[in-house]
Amino acid sequence: MLNFTLLKKSHILFLLVILIYGCSHEPQLKVYKKFRIVMDTVVTITVVSPSEKDAETAINAAFSVIERLDKSLSVFSPDSEISKINKSAGVDFVKVSEDTYQLINAAIKIAQVSDGAFDPTIGPIVNLWDFVKKVKPHPDKIRDRLSLVNYKDVLFDDSDMSVKLKNKGMALDLGGIAKGFAADKAVLSLKTSGIKAGIVACAGDIKVFGKKPDMKNWLVGIRSPRGKPEDLNAVLSLNDLAVSTSGDYERYFIINDIRYHHLLDPKTGSPAIGFQSVSIVNTQGVNTDSLSTAVFVLGPQKGLELVNKMKLMAYMVYSDGSVYVTDNLKELIVPMDK
Amino acid sequence: MNLDFLKSATIYDIILFALLLILSLFGMVYVYGGSANQGDRVVIDVNNIQAYDLPIDNDKVITQGNMIIEIKGKKVRVKDADCPNKLCVKQGWIVSGSIICLPNKVVIMIKKNIENSIKTDAVSG
């Protein structure tokens, strides 16, 4: 015969288990992912959410933020705020939106700390090169335009958030900072929508926040510069961090065994030498995007000086394929087979 | 918790208790672990709108605008395209990840189950 007292207690225990389980059981978290072509690249947004509908609403709102930024910042759109500033170079101040004003300010700060290795006024030089049609400009043409590249000639009027380029012919190009900035803003939008974890990847400019449903960090690969797009050099375990990589394999052409790539040195107007790729990890995408370019352009020696000075987390692949990883980044690297 | 009552437990009590515990644990595993396990799909977006969602197991050739996309032997490639630098064609066959043709605004992505596929969640570079 069963001991009924114990049976009752078993029931109580069973109910307790159910109760504890019931209290701890939240709706199942899932990963939702969407991508769109925007900012002339593929932007992928990944979120963790208990609801597909909430995830979709949040992702769409974040994409709207990026699309709005693209409209303001694109040099290809004649109506963008950047195009208006460029058209008014040497003539007038142009009133811009808060985001654009904030971004141009951020770009100038990075230009200052990198002593012009990153320079948002590199537009006149960028316009000379065409990496699709393999156009390598004549050195005289480059020389003529170098005087137009100087971040110190960007003038601000804080009273009405307007910007002016001092000299005619100057042109802003925020291609080296806008995607990281967009990733920051998109993450902010996702958080405002109530999303607790996710990734915004504007091509190689990636920002992650929160943790995956299994409570593990997000794993972000660093592409191998000379491998296939899916070949990785390293995998980083990230939480609430951004990472950007500037590589000489993104847009380039080769003539007589010389690789001409899009990471142009504002001081020479030609592709920077010394690295195959530079990846920077930081809390802000606006910093990782611009500083990966700055370090790349500075080259191995001065680049490392900047990395050390700013205590940046960096993964650098030199021209000969050798790799240097800063100590503060090593702990974020996970074995490739994980 | 006072566990004195365990001293007077019979074998039936223990069996009953174990059964209840197993049942409740099984329920938890079922709820947390149960999800559909679909095969890999080839998803093709054109101008940010999904144009195709195809099983990777079925060989197929798709003409999308001036692009020819081929699915064969559980692999995908852009066989031909009219874009200037033909990076999409040069990428060759893929078994994971994506092929992107920016001039044609076409993204071809191999979509796998989150549970069985992700080694990395994103790639910088």
List the helices and strands and how they pair.
The complex is a heterodimer of chains A (338) and B (125).
Chain A (H helix, E strand, L loop, with lengths): L3 H21 L5 E9 L2 E9 L2 H22 L7 H7 L6 E2 L2 H16 L9 H4 L12 H8 L7 E4 L4 E4 L12 H15 L4 E6 L2 E5 L8 E6 L8 E7 L2 E7 L4 E4 L2 E4 L13 E8 L2 H26 L2 E6 L4 E3 L1 H4 L2 E2 L4
Antiparallel strand pairs in A: 1-2, 2-6, 3-5, 4-5, 6-7, 7-10, 8-9, 9-16, 10-13, 11-12, 13-14, 14-15
Chain B lengths: L10 H23 L7 E6 L2 E7 L4 E5 L2 E6 L2 E6 L6 H4 L7 E4 L4 E6 L2 H4 L4 E3 L1
Antiparallel strand pairs in B: 1-2, 1-7, 3-4, 4-5, 6-7
Strand content of chain A: 25-35%
Distance between the termini of chain A: 53 Å
Largest sheet: spatial strand order of chain A: 1-2-6-7-10-13-14-15
Considering residues with a beta carbon less than 8 A from a beta carbon on another chain, report the largest interface and each chain's count. A-B, 57 and 40 residues
- The computed structural class of chain B is alpha+beta
- Rg of chain B over CA atoms, rounded to whole Å, is 25 Å
**How many DSSP E strands of chain A?**
16
CATH topology of the largest domain in chain B: mini-chromosome maintenance (MCM) complex, domain 2
- Could you describe the largest sheet of chain A, including whether it forms a barrel? 8 strands, antiparallel
Number of helices of chain A: 9
Number of domains of chain A: 3
Silhouette of chain A: globular
The top level CATH class name of the largest domain in chain B: Mainly Beta
In CATH, the topology of the largest domain in chain A is named: T-fold
Architecture overview:
The complex is a heterodimer of chains A (338) and B (125). With 338 residues, chain A is an alpha+beta fold. Chain A has 3 domains: 68 residues, no CATH class; 83 residues, ApbE-like superfamily (T-fold, Orthogonal Bundle), CATH 1.10.3980.10; 122 residues, Roll (T-fold), CATH 3.10.520. Chain A is 36% helix and 25% strand. Chain A has an 8-stranded antiparallel β-sheet with strand order 1-2-6-7-10-13-14-15. In chain A, helix 2 runs antiparallel to helix 7 and helix 4 packs parallel to helix 8. The longest helix of chain A is centred in the C-terminal third of the chain and has 26 residues. Chain A is globular, with a radius of gyration of 24 Å. Chain B is of the alpha+beta class and 125 residues long. Chain B folds into 2 domains: 26 residues; 76 residues, Sandwich (mini-chromosome maintenance (MCM) complex, domain 2). Chain B has 3 helices and 8 strands. In chain B, a hairpin with a 2-residue loop joins strand 1 and strand 2. Chain B is rod-shaped and about 85 Å long. About 12% of the residues of chain B have low confidence. At the A-B interface, helix 1, strand 1, strand 2, strand 7 and strand 8 of A face helix 1 and strand 8 of B. Strand 8 of chain A pairs parallel with strand 8 of chain B.
